[in-house]
Amino acid sequence: MSQNIDLNEIDKFSQLAVDWWNPNGKCKPLHIINPLRVDYIQQKCGSLTNQTVLDVGCGGGILSESLAKLGANVTAIDLADESLAVAKMHAEQNDLTINYQKQTVEEHAQQHPEHYDVITCMELLEHVPDPFSVIQACSVLLKPNGKLFLSTINRNHKAKLLLIYGAEYIARLVPKGTHDFNRFIRPSELMALVEQANLDVEAIIGMEYLLFKNQFKLSSNVDINYILMAQK
């Protein structure tokens, strides 16, 4: 379980570490979609005050900090040393208490079963060899009635055209090589994995990019980016 790791992917995101908190840099899309994600999580969970929250694959802590500011008790895990160093420093600078740890979600599940009210796992599943292993670990980590939020990318020609050719090579919104089309996950596939992990699919919603406004909006269109919410 602890070997569900792609070292090339970890190295790829380690190289982004210095740019995590630059809203106009290589992580710009994350800054654009973060408010949407936070609003959606709030909409589905209500108040996060004193809720135990785990952010899986936290990177530089963009989502982790937003959840901590809402009063959640946040633990955040990642495997990239450079990203975690940036995350810890930024949290300290903003007087935020976040428990950052270098650990796989599978290892964390062995130590903290049924510990969390809410788990977020954003844009990680398409970067690991075994997405089901991550989902299964999240299921173990959730308290009964706990909520899991997964975001990933649909696998179809539209996503390949817009995200890889468009975003990486033409618009250069993200670095070249960020995405591997073969690792994208169709909503039907993700729903099946979630149910296999003994979780109930509660909702699924798309994040649609508005090119001329350079912003995202929540949408029923799940052709490219989407969020699935499940409950234990």
UniProtKB/TrEMBL annotation:
<dbReference type="InterPro" id="IPR010233">
    <property type="entry name" value="UbiG_MeTrfase"/>
</dbReference>
<keyword id="KW-0808">Transferase</keyword>
<feature type="binding site">
    <location>
        <position position="57"/>
    </location>
    <ligand>
        <name>S-adenosyl-L-methionine</name>
    </ligand>
</feature>
<comment type="function">
    <text>O-methyltransferase that catalyzes the 2 O-methylation steps in the ubiquinone biosynthetic pathway.</text>
</comment>
<feature type="binding site">
    <location>
        <position position="37"/>
    </location>
    <ligand>
        <name>S-adenosyl-L-methionine</name>
    </ligand>
</feature>
<keyword id="KW-0949">S-adenosyl-L-methionine</keyword>
<dbReference type="GO" id="GO:0061542">
    <property type="term" value="F:3-demethylubiquinol 3-O-methyltransferase activity"/>
</dbReference>
<comment type="pathway">
    <text>Cofactor biosynthesis; ubiquinone biosynthesis.</text>
</comment>
<keyword id="KW-0831">Ubiquinone biosynthesis</keyword>
<feature type="binding site">
    <location>
        <position position="122"/>
    </location>
    <ligand>
        <name>S-adenosyl-L-methionine</name>
    </ligand>
</feature>
<keyword id="KW-0830">Ubiquinone</keyword>
<dbReference type="GO" id="GO:0010420">
    <property type="term" value="F:polyprenyldihydroxybenzoate methyltransferase activity"/>
</dbReference>
<dbReference type="Pfam" id="PF13489">
    <property type="entry name" value="Methyltransf_23"/>
</dbReference>
<dbReference type="GO" id="GO:0102208">
    <property type="term" value="F:2-polyprenyl-6-hydroxyphenol methylase activity"/>
</dbReference>
<keyword id="KW-0489">Methyltransferase</keyword>
<comment type="similarity">
    <text>Belongs to the methyltransferase superfamily. UbiG/COQ3 family.</text>
</comment>
<dbReference type="GO" id="GO:0032259">
    <property type="term" value="P:methylation"/>
</dbReference>
<protein>
    <recommendedName>
        <fullName>Ubiquinone biosynthesis O-methyltransferase</fullName>
        <ecNumber>2.1.1.222</ecNumber>
        <ecNumber>2.1.1.64</ecNumber>
    </recommendedName>
</protein>
<feature type="binding site">
    <location>
        <position position="78"/>
    </location>
    <ligand>
        <name>S-adenosyl-L-methionine</name>
    </ligand>
</feature>
<dbReference type="InterPro" id="IPR029063">
    <property type="entry name" value="SAM-dependent_MTases_sf"/>
</dbReference>
